[in-house]
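Q: Given only this backbone (245 positions), what sequence would you predict?
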């Protein structure tokens, strides 16, 4: 396997994007990741999406996003692994570039969830469960997370408040990200005071359903260093232009 590099990242604001499609969100994130890099350099597009089939009634999400972002003649595939969809798509890009099959693969994760009613969203999310042994009994993902947390607490001797550093850290990261939905820090005391969602999970242990997209460019070593040289040259030209202005 050859060395693999992250050559660019981009994201949209996490929000309720009522007026925008999943394709439009994906295009914005990919454009931000590319910056001055020509999109024609992309050799494959891997799309992470868990709920497009259920909520947008859209199959072939890889091809749909490729069309939305204006890519033609490249491999375009979608990966659905529920909450792990982004990680799976990124791993496939790493393997594709590391093996030498491609020099530049774009990974785009996108979800559009806020323009459907709650019942439909819950039904879509339930597809991540086992249809024969979990969903048939009405078990939601949130309820299963609560069961897993309860089991972990029992097996390893923890209390629910011992998990508070996770949402505290997540909010600290969000406070420093202008694209985040919640841009404020929280304390362990605030986690302790939060209402219960699915015992022992509290409101602040659970992520809010929202729309958004993020993109990562995965590049070979040869291409990554070539892109770096290109960006440095562009910075020099911009700096010279500012001096002469």
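A: Predicted residues:
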């Amino acid at each position: 396997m050859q060395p693999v590099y992250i050559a660019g990242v981009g994201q949209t604001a996490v929000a309720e994007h009522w007026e925008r499609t999943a394709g439009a969100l994906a295009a914005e994130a990919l454009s931000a990741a590319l910056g001055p890099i020509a999109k024609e350099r992309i050799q494959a597009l891997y799309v992470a999406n868990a709920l497009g089939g259920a909520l947008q009634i859209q199959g072939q999400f890889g091809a749909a996003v490729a069309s939305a972002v204006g890519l033609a003649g490249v491999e375009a595939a979608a990966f659905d692994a529920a909450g792990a969809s982004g990680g799976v798509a990124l791993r496939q890009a790493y393997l594709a570039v590391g093996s030498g099959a491609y020099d530049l693969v774009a990974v785009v994760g996108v979800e559009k969830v806020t323009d459907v009613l709650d019942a439909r969203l819950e039904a879509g999310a339930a597809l991540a469960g086992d249809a024969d042994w979990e969903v048939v009994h009405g078990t939601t993902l949130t309820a299963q997370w609560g069961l897993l947390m309860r089991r972990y607490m029992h097996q390893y001797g923890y209390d629910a408040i011992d998990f508070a550093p996770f949402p505290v850290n997540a909010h600290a990261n969000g406070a420093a990200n202008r694209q985040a939905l919640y841009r404020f820090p929280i304390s362990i005391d605030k986690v302790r005071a939060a209402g219960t969602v699915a015992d022992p999970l509290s409101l602040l242990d659970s992520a809010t359903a929202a729309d958004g997209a993020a993109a990562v460019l995965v590049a070979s070593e040869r291409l990554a260093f070539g892109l770096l040289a290109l960006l440095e040259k562009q910075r020099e030209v911009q700096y010279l232009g500012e001096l002469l202005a």
